Amino acid sequence: MKKLLIIAAAILISAGTADAKWWIFGKSGGEVGLKYLYVNKVSADETGPKIKVFKETLGADGLIKITGKASVGKSSVGSVRISLDDKGTWTDVKFAENGTFEHAFKPEQGKTYIMLVEVTDTAGKTNKPEETRKELSLSDENIQAKVKETLDIMFTAYSREDLTRFLANVGENFAGDKAILERAVKRDFDALSAINLRYTLNNVAAGAQGRIFVSVTYNRMVLVNKTGTTSTDSGATEFVFDMNEGQLALYSMKQPLMFGLSDPEVGTGVVLGGGEGLVLDDSGDLSTGLVVTKSYTNPDQSFGYNIETETFEDCDATAPNCGGHLLFMPGIPYIAADDVPTSAFIGPIPGKTVSTATQADAQAAAVNQQTTLTAGSTYGLKYGADYYAVEVTSLSGSGGGPYSITIKTKAF
């Protein structure tokens, strides 16, 4: 197996700050684990240790479906097993070459299932199944009607640009900050007209603290006031609601955003395969493409950013071995001593933000194997056959740290 390949993209922090560089490198090996895990289209990562599945949301077959994707770094998936009785018995699960898998079972009312997922690579290395442990139970409570009633009110209020009625269904502890959401929705109303939103309820489940997790598919059409043109999109997204005395209040939502399109930070997380979504830029125009904002602070150690999984992780400054395609290295950078560069290229996109940059912009820009990056600038990035826009919104660090960065990215 080839060693990590490090190429392109150095950021030099301006005079007076720490000497630091960004490097693009090939995918690294990682721990055996799961990239994602869903129970009936609800993310298991967010629900807490218990998941209550509502009987009325099951299909005609009455099945609970567990889906996920195994992650084994440089190796290959050797096996995937699921236990529903706290390791008492295990079932081998069929999986695709890319690690995706699905397992379905018919639950019994009043029974609790202790789920664990075990992934083993072809070298015999195994994940920690205890980290996937969830208690699954089936409930005959009627929750779908309450969820639909709340969503109907919010979608209708937003479409009619009724801010007061819309905010009445947003909780005071909204995870994306209620004040920020209010400002973002106001900007939506200034920039858009003839808002037409339609949705289909996919699934509902309950998790920790009684929170209700909701998955929907949607179709949307809006008129952009600035250009007089209409834009449409469709996809899937997720909401989380708090329940208080029988009333639901929005606690969080994911991207693609249904509300607050001008500020991606009101969303907490991204729906896997949810679609590109619509994004309002600073000029009041729409761009198609999901913008992801990520920030990270590290005391003094190098850290990487994986543009595919949208995550940061620490790595060793003298021998980088962290996942990702961009590597932030305080001090003198380490470069792999052998091997040839991968097909990764980068270059500036003048006069554009990540929201307004197009794939054509990224293709035209991504021609260099190394470039100086600065805060407030946008760049086109090519990795393999894929193109991305990367905007560095802030970058700081001096002396021995801490080093901080905020980036916005968009995949084409």
Task: Give a structural overview.
The chain has four helices and 25 strands. The chain is mainly beta. It folds into three domains: about 140 residues, no CATH class; about 80 residues, Immunoglobulin-like (Sandwich), CATH 2.60.40; about 140 residues, Nuclear Transport Factor 2, Chain: A, CATH 3.10.450. It has a nine-stranded mixed β-sheet with strand order 8-7-10-11-5-12-13-14-15. Strands 1-2-21-19-20 form a five-stranded antiparallel β-sheet, with no helix packed on it. It is globular, with a radius of gyration of 23 Å.
Strand portion, in percent? Answer: 35-45%
Instruction: Count up the helices.
Output: 4
Tally of domains: 3
CATH topology of the largest domain: Nuclear Transport Factor 2, Chain: A
The CATH class label of the largest domain is Alpha Beta
The H-and-E topology, N to C, reads as EEEEEEEEEEEHHHEEEEEEEEEEEHEEE
Main sheet specs: 9 strands, mixed
Per DSSP E runs of 2 or more residues, the count of β-strands stands at: 25
Write the CATH architecture name of the largest domain. Roll
Describe the global form: globular
